[in-house]
Design brief:
Number of domains: 3
Shape: globular
Order of helices and strands: EHEHEEHHHHHHHHEEEEEE
CATH topology of the largest domain: Glutathione S-transferase Yfyf (Class Pi), Chain A, domain 2
Oligomer: single chain
Number of helices: 10
Distance between the termini: 36 Å
Helix content: 25-40%
CATH class of the largest domain: Mainly Alpha
CATH architecture of the largest domain: Up-down Bundle
Radius of gyration: 19 Å
Largest sheet: 6 strands, mixed
Length: 293
């Protein structure tokens, strides 16, 4: 069976798991969950995550949900693969756990509201950001980053001298924010700024970066592409039909396509429609390009 991830490329939690898989240099299958149609609340997803959320994860006979628990499973189960993401020393591992909790309980709540206001609303739904909400959440983010600044003034990474899950868990959230006016909040703190530059330049982020392909129709339907290893840097235009021998998702006319790159071999899920599309690529890197007949 191998590793399967049920998720969406616009989901930070899904991206967190994909980054962990990239750090560990593991092959996997991403199965797109159509959030716009409420697929995450349907029986086949509820059977994998009873809360009807993504991602859900399968590795042969084990089934998991909750992205941070999944990343810990990946790190421990595949300890000999890729990059070490957890310490074997109990004291160091505990420190890493503290900062994983800080990310989950302190950084993400403020960050997610900012991402919604500054990224999702204007880019996906054509709505204006709520300046009052942005102002409140910016102050919360600044308070959290003040704590990060103090920690990173005495330690290269959050968990200690080595990059760990404590750092990795922050990457998708931070990258979204760094593409907004919140970048100045990070840049204003020298230790945080240097740390962000470090973790964003890792091979799993540079060579194995992710992009989410967004088609602005109706409420906005979100698909995506994941590049791992030596795959092409930018997603190619979608094929006119699904290549033989490659996995295909059932599609409606509202879908564009989603690709997963395993090494140099693209796996295309779904197919394009015969319409000219304006596609916005949003996530770890932003691009705009046009797919036409």
């Amino acid at each position: 069976m191998g590793i399967k991830v049920y998720g969406s490329m616009v989901s930070i939690a899904t991206l967190r798991v994909l980054l962990c898989l990239a750090e560990k240099d593991l092959v996997f299958e991403l199965i797109n969950v159509d959030l716009a149609s409420g697929e995450h609340k349907r029986p086949h997803i509820l059977a994998r995550n009873p809360f009807g959320q993504i991602p859900a994860f399968e590795d042969d006979d084990i089934k998991l949900f909750e992205s941070r628990a999944i990343s810990q499973y990946i790190s421990r189960t595949y300890a000999s693969k890729g990059v070490d993401l957890t310490s074997n020393d109990p004291k160091k591992a505990t420190v890493e756990s503290v900062w994983m909790e800080v990310e989950s309980q302190k950084l993400e709540p403020a960050a997610m509201k900012l991402i919604w206001e500054l990224c999702m609303k204007p880019l996906l739904f054509g709505q204006n950001s709520d300046d009052a909400v942005v102002s409140v959440e910016k102050k919360k983010l600044e308070s959290v980053l003040d704590v990060y600044e103090a920690r990173l003034s005495e330690s290269k990474y959050l968990g200690g001298d080595s990059f760990s899950l404590a750092d990795m868990h922050t990457v998708p959230t931070i990258k979204f924010l760094m593409d907004t006016q919140m970048k100045q909040v990070f840049d204003a703190r020298p230790c945080v700024s240097a740390w962000v530059a470090d973790i964003m330049s890792r091979p799993a982020c540079v060579k194995g970066h992710w992009v989410s392909v967004v088609r602005l129709l109706g409420v906005g339907l979100i698909l995506g592409a994941f590049r791992c290893g030596d795959g092409p840097e930018h997603p190619p235009p979608p094929p006119r039909s699904s290549p033989s021998g490659l996995t295909s998702l059932s599609n409606t006319h509202n879908y564009t396509y989603i690709c997963i790159y395993k090494g140099a071999h693209p796996q295309t899920l779904g197919s394009s429609t015969p319409h000219s599309l304006l596609v916005k690529v949003l996530s770890l890197y932003l691009y705009v390009y046009r797919i036409s007949n």
